[in-house]
Write a structure and sequence with these properties.
With about 260 residues, the chain is mainly α. It is about 55% helix and about 0% strand. It is built from 7 helices and no strands. Helix 1 crosses helix 3 and helix 5 packs across helix 6. The structure holds a DNA duplex (14 and 14 nucleotides). InterPro entries: HD, Homeobox_CS, Homeodomain-like_sf, KN_HD, PBX_PBC_dom, TALE_homeobox. It comes from Hyalella azteca (Amphipod).
DNA sequence: GGAAATGATTTGGG
DNA sequence: CCCAAATCATTTCC
């Protein structure tokens, strides 16, 4: 019913996917804006584990059910010597057994669903895998922010430029400015120091080049001496060993973290 | 270990 | 869409 559909939708039940668990070796980290590729393979690996356990258990139940059924059949056959037993009665017995076992399977399915839900919330919520930006990125963003304090709203192009220089996404730049604005406003008194600090830094670093905001937002501004915007992001997230323990003995042992 | 800092998301308004 | 504000979850610093 619902649970089945959900499990199929999540890829736990249903058609077997290719090589199964160990077939998530995706080593193509697109240079551009590829941000949701690596986390996905990790997610799938864990999902594969869940699927494996699920099928294992399912099979076990199936087997147990069959064994129990034949056992009961034997008992009935034995009894048939002392009293007449109709085929209908046997069939009813079998049905009762199957019903019982299917309810047990239901439990398995439900706890599997729960496990998937937990997994989803663990991996799909980016808040849980937050990483601080690099020092340089913060520098760049702060520079812009305090240089344009009167209007700290970078246009789309400016955001893109900042994103490139910081090796982060445009969305992250937007987030950063959203956070920065609100948090700057919250305590202006204290942040003022920071403003001065960055203003001074600016003046010292650039000498006579007031690219504040009046003129064109030239995309060719020369960065300060210590630029180096390559540096390939900020490394792979360590992915602390979550080890969620589901209701029914699901336990994803902390796997070796590498791609 | 707890507080502060910080990045990301949700909510609500335009 | 973008933004502000509130909130969440994690990292960093003490």
């Amino acid at each position: 019913m619902r649970l089945d559909n959900m499990l199929i939708a999540e890829g736990v039940a249903g058609p077997e996917k290719g090589g199964g668990v160990g077939a998530a070796a995706n080593a193509s980290a697109a240079a551009g804006a590829g941000d949701s590729a690596i986390e996905h393979s990790d997610y799938r690996a864990k999902l594969g584990q869940i699927r494996q356990i699920y099928h294992q258990e399912l099979e076990k139940y199936e087997q147990a059910c069959n064994e129990f059924t034949t056992h009961v059949m034997n008992l009935l056959r034995e009894q048939s010597r002392t009293r007449p037993i109709t085929p209908k009665e046997i069939e009813r017995m079998v049905q009762i057994i199957h019903k019982k076992f299917s309810s047990i399977q239901m439990q398995l399915k439900q706890s599997t669903c729960e496990a998937v839900m937990i997994l989803r919330s663990r991996f799909l919520d980016a808040r849980r895998r937050r990483r601080n930006f690099s020092k340089q990125a913060s520098e760049i963003l702060n520079e812009y922010f305090y240089s344009n304090l009167s209007n700290p709203y970078p246009s789309e192009e400016e955001k893109e430029a900042l994103a490139r220089r910081c090796s982060i996404t445009v969305n992250q730049v937007s987030n950063w400015f959203g956070n920065k604005r609100i948090r700057y406003k919250k305590n202006i008194g204290k942040a003022q120091e920071e403003a001065n600090l960055y203003a001074a830094k600016k003046a010292a670093g650039e000498g006579a080049s007031p690219y504040s905001m009046s003129g064109t937002p030239g995309p060719m501004m020369s960065p300060p001496p210590g630029d180096e915007s390559s540096m390939g992001g900020y490394g792979m997230p360590g992915m602390n060993g979550s080890g969620y323990s589901g209701a029914l003995g699901y336990d994803l042992h902390p796997e070796s973290p590498d791609v």
